[in-house]
Structures are given as C-alpha cells and as structure tokens.
Amino acid sequence: MQNGQYISLALYFLLMLAIGFYGYKTSTSDSSEYMLGGRKLGPAVTSLSAGASDMSGWMLLGLPGAAFLAGLPAAWIAIGLTVGALCNYLVVAPRLRVYTETAKDALTIPDYFGKRFDDHTHLLRVFSSIVIVVFFTVYVSATLVGGGKLFESAFGQDYMTGLWITAGVVMVYTFVGGFLAVSMTDFVQGCIMFVALILVPVIAFTQLGDNVNLNEIFASVNPADSAKVEGSLDNLSMNLFSGATVIGTISLLAWGLGYFGQPHIIVRFMAIRSVKDVPMARNIGMGWMVIALIGSVSTGIIGAAYVIQNGVPTEYLNEDGLFDKETIFIALSQILFHPLIAGFLLAAILAAIMSTISSQLLVASSSLTEDFYKLFLRRNASDKESVMVGRICVVIVALVAIFLARNPDSSVLDLVANAWAGFGAAFGPVIILSLHWKKMTMPAAFLGMLVGAATVIIWTYTGLISGALADLYSIVPGFIFCWLTVFIVSLFTQPKPGVLETHDVVDGQMKS
Question: Of 368, 414, 440, 509, which one has the greatest count of Cβ atoms within 10 A?
C-alpha cells in the first residue's frame, strides 16, 4: 500500500529540488537576489509564498488536532489569524515595500531597523538579529517535529529519520536557490495545501452518512474510544462559544497580532515587484487563507465525527497506546484515499512544513550574514562571499533546529505558539509605529523590542504569572507592553532629522 505513497513523495521531492536549481541558475548572483529575489516577485507568488510560509505544519497537524478535541470553538484561532493577516496587508505591506528600498535598499528586517533609525551604534540591528536567530531556530525545530511525526505515523519510519529527510531536502533547495527558490517552492506548496485542505474534509464528510448531525454524533462518543485519544472527545461542540471564557477567547484571537512581527512573512512584502501589486497579492492571499483555514478546522471536526462513528484507528496509536490528535489529517488521508492520492495528501503536510522551514532558514541565515558577518567581521565582503556565508548559515541553523526537535513528544502547536508570540510581541508594534509615526525614536524601538521579548519569556517560562492571567496568551501582554514602551520612550527622546526626511519620501511615494 505504501509504494504509491512513496512514489508521490519522491516526485514531490524531485520537483522541489528542480525548483531549487532553477533558482540557482536565475537569481543567486548577488546578496539582493539570494536574500530578496531581486525584489521581482509577482503578486501571486508573493501572496501564496507568504501564506504557505505562514501556515506551517500546524495548519495540517496542530489546528486540526485542536479542532479534533474542541470542535468549532477551535475556529477562534482561525478568525484571529484571518483578521490579523488582512490588517498586515493593509497596514504594513505597502509602506514596508517602499520604505525598505528607500532606506538604502535594506535587505533584512534588522537592516531596515538600523537604517530607519540611523543607528550607528548597531545596538538595534544586533538585538533584533539575535531575536530573529533565537526564535527562528525554535520555530524551525517546532516545524521539524511535524516532519518527524509524519514519517513516524504514515510510514512507520524512525522519528529522527523523518527529521533528517525533511530538513535535508529543505536545506538543499534553500542552500542552492536562495529566496527565489524558496518563494517558488512556497507557491507550489501553497497550491498543494489548498487542494488537500478541500479534498480531505469533503471526502471524510461523505463517509459520515446521510442527514449528518454533528452534535448528535459528538453526543454519542464511546467512553472507551475517548480514553484512547490524547486528551478527550467529551468536550466536542458545534457551538462557537461553548466553554468560552473571556481570557480564552482573547488568547485565541490574539494569534492575529503575531502577523505584524513575523520576519519570514513580511519579508515577502519587501520583495514584491511593486507597491501597486500589493492589492492583488492581498486579494489572492486572503482568499487562499480563508478557504485553507476553513478546511483545516473542518478536517479536525469531521475527523472527530469519523473516529466516533468508526472507532479509533488502532494502527495510528502511539507508544503510549493513544491516538495523537495531531495526526488526524494523516489518518484520514491513508484510510480514505488510494495510496497515490494519499501520497499527494501527505506531500501537502510536507509542503506546509517545508515551506515554513525554508523561509525561516533563509531569513535567519540572511540576518547572520548581513547583520553579524558583514557588520562585524567582513564589512567589504563581496557578493559572492556573502552568498556563500548565507548558505553556510542555512546549514548551521538547520542542524541546531534538528537537535532541538529531537523530542517526538513536543506539541507542534505549543512550540509554534511560543515562537509566534515572541516575534509578534518583539517586532509587531515596532514595525507598525516605525512605518506610520515620524516621532518614533531608536531608543524607543530598542526598549520596545526588549520589553516585548522579555514579557513573552517571563509569561511563558518562568512561572511567575499565576491565576487566570497565566492562561492569557503571552503575545497579548507582550504586544501591549512593547507598544506602550515605544510610545512613552519616544515622547522623551528626539528622532534624528535624516529619519524624518526618509519618512517624507515614503509618504510621497505612497500618495502617488
């Protein structure tokens, strides 16, 4: 049965590698091409690349898993993400595209911060680079966990083997083809994910019988089957507000705040061909995202109904004898479809995983190259040398991430949540205000990042926050404290004159 799946996966891997070598041939001659594709991305590639790199393995593993246990209330995350992504296209995308080119062709987010605030001390640039490298390494490791789980659940392979296969293919096409290869593979992967997230829930729903009433199915759950699931099937509901609390709902909606500070997403806005292409990219990207999120939540809900009707599939029980909720997409793909189609659907999971890993590896390596190596070690490094250093950094970050992802019991959604919060709180308010508020200053930007990142770490890992507040998603206090810090510090410090002039240029280009 697995031969067809292996054939589909092999074809998928070959396609990714072919795109990588195409990128090598057409867009790796200098740093700008390797790190931003020469700012020539069209709106379709920009939007699907941003979407695919955003919706990592959690979209086919973590979010369906959450919906598998909760039902429709899990959709609050999807609602928050949709609103956040739309605001990101409206508030950040146009100005960031203009400003990063106006500010002496900034190639990375830390480079943008340094040039935006004329920071000759490099404090802002170095600190933001550290945040990127640390959180992205954690983020990549979280995504690799999904790859390991896929090979373990679908093919019976060793978890670490799955990590190495997933990371290996991504490293090759990212190492070779740079930003263009990453963006083009993201586009293809986004198309694959889109089809899969429509196909799986629709076919699974047809297997539930006629006149389906999900509430009745959820009410008929067998306690013995529920006991075989990691978590419980006893709380499933089709009421969006079932079990909702104010803090819980705010926490789920707050995922949308993270978009403003995700370097691997907003770097696509820097690379789009023209600011005039942003509206079309927004329309394509939001349409793709809404349908994909509906498919993701539906997969978990319908998957739970299918398991209640047919029993827990014993072949997918883990070492503890429990069904891992985050493997419901994998189980449905293999149970309901022909092996060749199942292989395509499993490739969709790899597409989600690999699109995010490649984007994050490239952003992290770009930051290490531009914001550390060229800043402190080789200021006059040639383009050829810079590209080679970037490729070496891709491998280094990937190896560290593999080491961190070696625990197969890690929750994809939890790991992603922590990294997402870190970026959103540290960078989100700083990016928004830097693009729209002339009076913002360099000290305010630095202290805002510091406070935002520290808040997330304290809230998540120290145990100092107790009671109901401990259940509040850390991005909420982090984002608020960062914003307040930037605003207050800016009132007591003065922006540099040259910064205002650059901001006026951006205003003029935006109006035209």
Answer: 440
